[in-house]
């Protein structure tokens, strides 16, 4: 796959969504949204199963914010994951794709 540019986890959406189906996950938390590529797929699935999506990203792109505003079952938390996850309850699955640099201060 020399031409594959892995810009978004949505490249692996079929695999990820299949795993969520097997697990029966209804409330999913996404850490790291950026443009919302994977968010769109997770949001569509959450709607299909009557679930919800919480997406945590302190600095997402405008495209993401616009898509979140259109959906009642999707919530955005504009904070680093470490500041947000302690307040979340009844989460079935976590999708972790935030800071790739391994910094302890911004953990994702
Ligand atoms: C690789 S992109 C996410 C791509 C997205 N998951 C997708 O598949 O389309 C990384 C995002 O993580 C966010 N981020 C960085 N540090 C974070 C943290 N501590 N908590 C939550 N999000 C973080 C950045 O703002 C950026 O938008």
Number of discrete helical segments: 4
Order of neighbouring strands in the sheet with most strands? 3-2-1-4
Q: Overall pLDDT, averaged? A: 91
Measured distance between first and last alpha carbons:
28 Å
Structural class: alpha/beta
What value does the Rg take, in angstroms?
13 Å
Number of strands: 4
Bound molecules: S-adenosylmethionine
Order of helices and strands: HEHEHEHE
Label the overall shape.
globular
User: Main sheet, how many strands, which sense, barrel?
Assistant: 4 strands, parallel
* Helical content (DSSP H or I, runs of 4+): 25-40%
Q: State which percent range the strand residues make up.
A: 15-25%
Low-confidence stretches: none
What report would you give on this structure?
This protein is α/β, with parallel strands linked by helices. Strands 3-2-1-4 form a four-stranded parallel β-sheet. It has helices at residues 13-23, 37-49, 62-69, 81-84, and strands spanning 27-31, 52-56, 74-77, 93-96. The model has no long low-confidence stretch (mean pLDDT 91). S-adenosylmethionine binds at residues 8-10, 31-34, 37-38, 56-60, 80-81, 97-99, 106-108.
């Amino acid at each position: 796959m020399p031409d594959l540019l892995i810009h978004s986890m949505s490249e692996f959406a079929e695999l990820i969504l299949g795993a969520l189906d097997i697990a029966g996950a209804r409330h999913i938390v996404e850490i790291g949204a950026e443009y919302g590529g994977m968010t769109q797929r997770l949001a569509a699935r959450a709607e299909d199963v009557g679930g919800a999506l919480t997406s945590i990203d302190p600095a997402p792109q405008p495209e993401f914010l616009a898509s979140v505003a259109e959906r009642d079952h999707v919530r955005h938390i504009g904070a680093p994951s470490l500041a947000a996850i302690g307040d979340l309850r009844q989460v079935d699955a976590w999708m972790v794709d935030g800071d790739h640099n391994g910094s302890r201060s911004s953990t994702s």
